[in-house]
Design brief:
alpha+beta; 54% helix; 2 domains; two-stranded antiparallel sheet; 5 strands; 98 residues
Length: 98
């Protein structure tokens, strides 16, 4: 893995061949948001991947990883709900009655 832009763009090496691929996260910019994926999407991909691995070849480690990733997903959802709630509160406090 190479960090192309800290926290936002990563170059991931292919496993058994030359080449790589980029993982780009969404980013806030002056005009709004730059297109990219989210932490939630990456965690969902990993959960699906480990379910697939588990189906083909059960292991206690894979099962533990699935449980931990589900906890990560739950924490990300909790974090997002809190952030959304904070934005709603801010908007309510700053809006003027008409």
């Amino acid at each position: 893995m190479d960090i192309l832009k800290e926290g936002t763009i990563y170059r991931l090496e292919n496993y058994s061949s030359n080449g790589n691929q980029e993982l780009v996260f969404t980013e806030r910019v002056e005009s709004g948001y730059r297109a990219g994926t989210t932490n939630e999407e990456v965690v969902n991909v990993l959960i699906d991947r480990f379910y697939h691995l588990q189906k083909n070849n059960f292991s206690a480690e894979n099962q533990c990883i699935i449980l931990l990733l589900k906890n990560v997903r739950r924490m990300l959802a909790k974090r997002l709900n809190r952030k959304i709630g904070n934005v709603k509160k801010y908007n309510e406090q700053t809006s003027t009655p008409t």
